[in-house]
Amino acid sequence: MAQTWLVVGLGNPGPRYEATRHNVGQMVLDELASRRGESFRAHKANARVAETWLRPGAAKMILAKPNSFMNVSGGPVANLARFYGVEPEQVVIVHDELDIPFDTIKLKTGGGHGGHNGVRDVAKALGTPEFPRVRVGIGRPPGRQDAADWVLDPFAGAERQNLPILLSDAADAVEKLIDEGLLAAQQKHHAPRA
């Protein structure tokens, strides 16, 4: 029987936040759903989900976007993991990362939360930090702009032009992680772009 993976895009709910840097995880989930012609629907775990497959005969993927705010993402993630019978090592969290330059993707399993309150809350709710993460670089704010304001701003003009490529690359990273494992995904996506 094919393995089931829960892939969660972190972000904030509502139109005010849709295009912000903090919601890049949910944008990646939209890309994954769009590739498969799927749409999200309400789930009782306070999330929107799309049930699909990596490809026919391969792993099942539950794509999920919590309806909660970023800092309290853990509840919906833990409830979905329980509902679908998915262990933490099969819960992929896709999120924005200040400490990685824009247009860069890094993958890891476990470790600290790096000050990311959404990741912190998921680790607390799952009872472990040992889950895979696809970290989508948004870079640090220029000058003295506060990081909290920066993540809640929309992507700037030049970033917006490159955003579709970044979202596609991050979606590729999720698929590679599920299909071939963390190391293969790291080897492909951590290498400098040609």
Automatic annotation (TrEMBL):
GO terms for molecular function: peptidyl-tRNA hydrolase activity; tRNA binding. Its EC number is 3.1.1.29. The active site is at residue 22. The record marks 12 as: Discriminates between blocked and unblocked aminoacyl-tRNA. One of its GO terms (biological process) is rescue of stalled ribosome. The record marks 96 as: Stabilizes the basic form of H active site to accept a proton. It comes from the Bacteria. TRNA binds at residues 17, 69, 71, 117. Signal peptide: none annotated. It is found in: Cytoplasm. PROSITE patterns: PEPT_TRNA_HYDROL_1, PEPT_TRNA_HYDROL_2. It holds the Pfam family Pept_tRNA_hydro. Hydrolyzes ribosome-free peptidyl-tRNAs (with 1 or more amino acids incorporated), which drop off the ribosome during protein synthesis, or as a result of ribosome stalling. Monomer. This is Peptidyl-tRNA hydrolase. It comes from Microbacterium thalassium. The gene is pth.
